[in-house]
Inverse folding.
């Protein structure tokens, strides 16, 4: 079986789903988040550079119309399943975080009308990914291929090659050189844990992160301690998506 595509056959039963996963596993009465959680786990288990593609096939229609998710959305399922559920959920989603006391949070959904999963048009580009928070932080916007935003001072720093990675070297503030991964030609990214480590080891109390989620924390400057708290919260939400 090809590992570069994950096909899910499903039928809707009210607000839950029944069907079959790519490996023949039958499921019934699953919530949507659980399907996404399984896809996410499978993606992490596959050791491949490319993120597998994902195809949904609704099995209770006369004509089967496979619906292949766009690449950016597959990436989102891999890196941030909570955000993926949020984007794709056919129904309004309430994420219950297993906390003491329990915290309930209604997620932002403009429409409360149930939609068909295969009917919704999903446009998820890298700019949307850049505004999500999860295992990765989209740290710096790239300018003219040779410059990127400095996380320490917010000015344009020079960008140099280092094998597969990029080195951000800021002459403006003299921040320690930082190795970042190229997400695409517009964005650099770094694993959130590595970002927190970098800040802690460099003695930085705040970072310049002009992303939507950063503004909700008083950005563009984000306190490193609050960043660490947010990451802990993300992992709790993620365990809700991925656990039964
Ligand atoms: Zn700088």
């Amino acid at each position: 079986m090809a590992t570069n595509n994950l096909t899910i056959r499903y039928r809707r039963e009210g607000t839950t789903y029944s069907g079959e996963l790519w490996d023949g596993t039958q499921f019934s009465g699953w919530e949507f988040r659980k399907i996404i959680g399984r896809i996410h786990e499978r993606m992490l288990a596959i050791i491949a550079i490319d993120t597998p593609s994902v195809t949904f096939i609704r099995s209770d229609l006369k004509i089967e119309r496979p619906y292949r998710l766009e690449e950016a959305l597959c990436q989102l399922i891999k890196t941030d399943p909570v955000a993926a559920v949020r984007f794709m959920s056919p129904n309004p989603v309430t994420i219950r975080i297993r906390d003491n006391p329990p915290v309930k949070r209604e997620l932002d959904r403009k429409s409360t009308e149930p939609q068909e999963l295969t009917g919704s048009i999903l446009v998820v580009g890298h700019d949307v990914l850049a505004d999500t928070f999860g295992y990765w932080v989209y740290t710096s916007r790239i300018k003219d291929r040779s410059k990127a935003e400095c996380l320490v001072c917010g000015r344009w720093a020079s960008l140099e090659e280092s094998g597969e990675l990029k080195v951000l070297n800021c002459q403006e503030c003299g921040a320690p050189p930082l190795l970042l991964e190229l997400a695409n030609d517009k964005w650099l990214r770094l694993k959130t844990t590595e970002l927190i480590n970098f800040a802690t080891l460099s003695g930085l109390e705040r970072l310049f992160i002009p992303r939507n989620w950063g503004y909700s924390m008083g950005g563009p400057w984000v306190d490193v301690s609050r960043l660490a708290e947010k990451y802990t919260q993300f992992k709790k939400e993620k365990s809700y998506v991925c656990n039964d």
